[in-house]
Amino acid sequence: MYDVYTKRNDKKKYIIAGVAIVGVIAIAAAFFLLKGDSKESTLKDYYAAIKEKKYDEMYNMISEQSQKAYSKDEFIKRNQNIYEGIEASDIELTIDSSEDDTIQYKVKMKTLAGEISFDNQTKIKDGKIVWDDSFVFPSLEKTDKVRISEDDASRGRILDRNGKVIAHMGEAYSVGLVRGKLNGESDYEKLASLLDLTKEGIQKTMSASWIKDDSFVPLKTISKSDTNLENSLLKIPGVKLTTTTVRSYPYGEATSHLVGYMQKVTAEDLEKHKGEGYDENSYIGRSGIEAAYEKELKGQDGVSIYIVDSQGNKKTALASHDKKDGQDITLTIDIQLQNNLYQSFKKDKSASVAMNPTNGEILALVSTPTFNSNDFILGLSSTKWDSLNNDTNKPLLNRFKEAWVPGSTMKPLTAAIGLNTQSLNASEDFNAQMKWQKDSSWGSYFVTTLHAPKPNNLKNALIYSDNVYFAKAALKIGKDNLVKGYKAMKIGDEIPFELSLKKSQYTSKDFSEDIQIADSGYGQGQILMNPVQMASIYGAFVNDGKMMTPHIVKSTETKVWAEAFSKAVADEIKNDLVGVISDSQGTAHSFYHNGMTLAGKTGTGEIKASQDDTTGQEVGWFTVMTTDAKNPIVISSMVEDVKGRGGSNYVVNRMKQPFDSYVK
User: Fold this and answer.
1) How many CB atoms are located within 10 Å of the residue 357 CB?
2) Catalytic (active site) residue 408
C-alpha cells in the first residue's frame, strides 16, 4: 500500500512539475504574442491617425532617432502635404508578418488619380516606429517630392438638333496688371472704371505679399469681341491681356434660361461633390442644361501622381488615369426658331414652348426678359448683379418653368373632357347669354362674355370664345368628370422633363364650389397651367389624342405620356380649333395662312382680387398647331401684362414672324 502511495505521491509531484513547466512555456509564448500584438497595434494606431489627419499624434509615435531627422513642424507639413495633396482616403492596412522588430505589411488607398497599393516594412522598437520617408512610399527619400500633374478634360458642348453650337469652350482675355509698370493712383481709377471694379478692390488684390513688381496678377476676364475695351485697357501702363479658355454661349440671351450658366464652385459645392474632381478653381453648372447634365458635360480630368528626385527628374509613378473629355449633349432645339421667338418677345415678360406633337421633342424653350449666360462666366459686378435682382421685370425668373392662369386656352380642354366622358353634346344649343349665373345663390356673381354666338353650340363657342358657354358646360360635365379629365391630362402630376418644371393645377385646395367649377371651365378659378404641359396637351389634338412626353435631349426615348382622349374627340376639337383661325369671326383669324390649315386658340387670363377689380393684370396666350403631318409643330406662348395692349391678339401678332420663318 505504501509503495503505491509513495509512487502516487511521486507521480503527483511529477504532474505538478509538469504543469509548472507548461505554465512557464505558456507565459513565455503569451509574452512574445503580446509583444507582436503591441507592434501591430502601434502600426494600426499610426494608420488610424493618418485617416483622421492627426499628424501631431503621428509624430509622437515615431522614434527619438526619427524625430532627430525631422522637427515636428517639418514632419507635420511633409505628411499633410502628401496625404491631403493626393486626397488619400479609404486607407487599408494589412499586416503580413511580424518577426523580431520588423513588420511586413501592405497598404492600399484611394487617391485623386486612382488606387495606390504597395508592400512595405518597418521596424518598431520600444513601442515607437523607426520612421523615414520610405514609410510613406517605399521609394520616397527625404530629398524627393511627390508631384501631381493634371490634364484638364474639355467640357462637352451643347448643340442644337442640327449640330449648331449653343455652348462650348471658347476664348476670352484675362486682364491683369504688372505692378511695377503702373504710373500711380490715376491708373487704378482708369482700370477700375473700364472693368467695372472698385479702385480699392484692385489695390487690395495688388497688395498681396506674394506679388512682386514683375508679377502678372489677373483681375478679370473679358470677352474678346469688345475691341474698344481691349484698346482702352492696353493704353494703361502695366495692363496685360492673355488668352484664356472659358465657357462661351454664342447665342447669349436667346438661350440663357434654357442652357443656364456656370459659376465658380463654392465651399458648399466642394463638400457636396467631394471626390468628383473639383477644386477651388473649378466651375460648375448652376442652372438649365449646364446643371442638369453637369456630370456628363464635365468629363474627368487626367491626373498623375509620381515621385521626383531633388533634380526634378521623374522617379516613380504611383497612380494615374487618363483624362476623359465631357460628352456633347445634343438638344432637340432648333436654334433658329429659338432665336426668332426670343427676338420677337424679348421686350415682354413671356414664355414660349415649341414642340413636335408626334414625338414630344421640344423645338424651342424661351423665357423673357432674360440675362446673358456669358456674364456669369466673365464675372458679374455687384452693380450688374443688383440690377438683375432688383429689375421689376424679373429677368432671372424662368417663366417657362412656372404655371400661369390659362384663360380661354383652357376651353378646348374642358370640351375634350366633356366629349370624352360623354357628358357634353357638341351640337346642343346652350342658349346664348352675355351675362349668366346658375341661380340666385351666386348673389352678385355673374359670368360674362364678349361674344355669345348663335347657335350656342361647341364649335361656335370655341370660335367666338364664349365664357358663358364653357361655364355652363363645366357644370353640366360635373365635378367628377372634370377631375377625371384633368387627371387623364396629368394636370397636377409632376411633369416628366429633363429640367424642373412647376406642376399645373386645377385647384389649390378643394374643388367643390359651383362658382369655382364654372370658372374653371373657361380657364379661371384656381386653374394654373405650365406652358410645356399646355403644348403637350394641345399636341394631342393633332396626334390622335396622345400626349407625348416632352423632352429636350435628342437621345431621350420617345414615349406617350398619356392617352388623354380618344381619336374621335381629338379630331372634333382639332376641327373646331381650325375654325378659330380660318373663320372670319375667329379670335385668331389674323393668323390665317392661305394654303395652310392651322388650328389654334387664344386666351386671356385675368389676375384680379375680385370680379369688380379693374386694376388686375391680364395674361395673354396663343397656342397654334399645324395639322399637316409633314411639318408637325405646336407653339404655345404666354405674355404677362397684355392689358391695354390688345390682350391675346398681342401674342398672336408677335408669334407670326417666328412661326412663318419655321414653316416656310
Assistant:
1) 24
2) yes
